[in-house]
């Protein structure tokens, strides 16, 4: 029987997702068709649904994180084959081709962004990785202008002698960034809520501070100075004026300036000359090889974890809107996932 595709479409900004038919994709050169089994939901999808940013063509199919089984491969694909259990970063609404959206039964992914999973990593767990890990890699290890220029993660890290501040360490990008920093030999001073301190510590945070405390800026500045490492900058995984910029900028000022990595590509920040704002974009070719050389072997060896833990919104494409609604209200160290 021929396979039938269905998708949770966003027809226009401001509307809810609607499940309906979608064309069954054929893989082109260097492309893989994946039968999705788990889809993770990212906060940007709520922004797209509300205000219509990024979308080049309506209706659209949202989001980027899928895991499942390879259904078909196109010419020139050698890294995966039919039936393989894989995780992939798809392009979502970027580029305007709905075949590359995540919220459907069958998505198309570029072969270089499709990675075969170790047997003991579940598809549901793996679905939380692509956006979070890729953004952590670009943010920490991207070259000047793209990231903070830290070493790439390694399975046997050497101490780098550098100290990094991560604001919002319990977020999806934060938990991946802590682990990448540890694997890059970088000491991290992390900011989160106390109920997430143990989790952040287990991902490598050397020191933790509570963002609800009035003393947080002073405490972080003292900890960076006491670390004796070379200050590598602040990665702001929250990137909102009142929630994080208000604190991250004074931390940098008190430390004499440096790099401020932010996750909002549209951010317009007024900062003194000695602070350099780096707008981080997780979609970057530099991440592809890091999956092969670090992440997949590290998952196999238990040196890197699929975090935040998935929080299941339900099963089936109909549950995606529910997952988006829960995420919009806010989650704590969890990633909304829908299984199919
Ligand atoms: N540029 C890119 O390529 C890119 C990629 C990925 C994400 N992003 C953006 O980055 C942002 C974060 O995304 P995400 O998926 O990582 O977030 P997320 O996981 O949904 O973030 C929620 C976490 O942040 C913590 N938190 C909330 N407010 C905080 C604050 N004021 N200070 C410190 N921690 C706080 C929460 O913990 P508690 O409430 O329990 O403290 C919770 O654990 C979003 O705006 C997203 O669109 C951009």
UniProtKB/TrEMBL annotation:
Domain of life: Eukaryota
Gene Ontology molecular function: oxidoreductase activity, acting on NAD(P)H
One Pfam family matching this protein: ADH_N
SUPFAM superfamilies per UniProt: GroES-like (SSF50129), NAD(P)-binding Rossmann-fold domains (SSF51735)
Sorted UniProt keywords: Oxidoreductase
SMART domains for the chain: PKS_ER
Record InterPro entries: ADH-like_N, ER, GroES-like_sf, NAD(P)-bd_dom_sf, Trans-enoyl_RdTase-like
Keyword Endoplasmic reticulum tagged: no
Domain Enoyl reductase (ER): 14-287
Family stated for the protein in its record: Belongs to the zinc-containing alcohol dehydrogenase family.
Known partners and oligomeric status: Monomer.
Protein name: Enoyl reductase (ER) domain-containing protein
């Amino acid at each position: 029987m021929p396979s039938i595709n269905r998708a949770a479409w966003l027809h226009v900004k401001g509307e809810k997702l609607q499940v309906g038919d979608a064309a069954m994709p054929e893989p082109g050169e260097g492309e893989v068709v994946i039968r999705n089994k788990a889809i993770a939901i990212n906060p940007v999808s709520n922004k797209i649904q509300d205000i219509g940013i990024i979308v080049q063509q309506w209706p659209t199919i949202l989001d980027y994180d899928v895991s499942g089984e390879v259904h078909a491969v196109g010419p020139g694909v050698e890294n995966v084959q039919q039936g393989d259990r894989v995780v992939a970063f798809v392009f979502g609404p970027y580029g305007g081709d709905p075949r590359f959206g995540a919220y459907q039964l069958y998505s198309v992914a570029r072969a270089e962004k499709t990675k075969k999973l170790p047997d003991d990593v579940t598809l549901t767990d793996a679905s939380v990785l692509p956006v979070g890990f890729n953004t952590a890699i670009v943010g920490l290890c991207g070259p000047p202008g793209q990231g903070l220029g830290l070493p790439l993660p390694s399975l046997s890290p050497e101490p780098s002698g550098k100290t990094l501040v991560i604001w919002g360490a319990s977020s999806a990008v934060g938990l991946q960034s802590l682990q990448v920093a540890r694997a890059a030999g970088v000491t991290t001073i992390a900011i989160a809520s106390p109920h997430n301190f143990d989790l952040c510590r287990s991902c490598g945070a050397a020191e933790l501070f509570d963002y609800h405390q009035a003393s947080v800026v002073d405490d972080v500045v003292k900890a960076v100075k006491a670390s004796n490492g070379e200050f590598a900058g602040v990665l702001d995984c929250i990137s909102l004026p009142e929630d994080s910029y208000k604190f991250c900028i004074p931390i940098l000022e008190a430390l004499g300036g440096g790099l401020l990595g932010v996750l909002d590509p549209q951010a317009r920040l007024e900062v003194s000359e000695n602070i350099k704002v780096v707008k981080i974009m997780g979609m970057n070719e530099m991440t592809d090889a890091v999956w092969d050389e670090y992440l997949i072997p590290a998952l196999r060896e238990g040196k890197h974890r699929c975090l935040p833990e998935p929080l299941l919104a339900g099963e089936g494409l109909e549950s995606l809107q529910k997952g988006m609604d829960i995420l919009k209200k806010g989650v704590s160290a969890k990633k909304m996932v829908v299984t199919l």
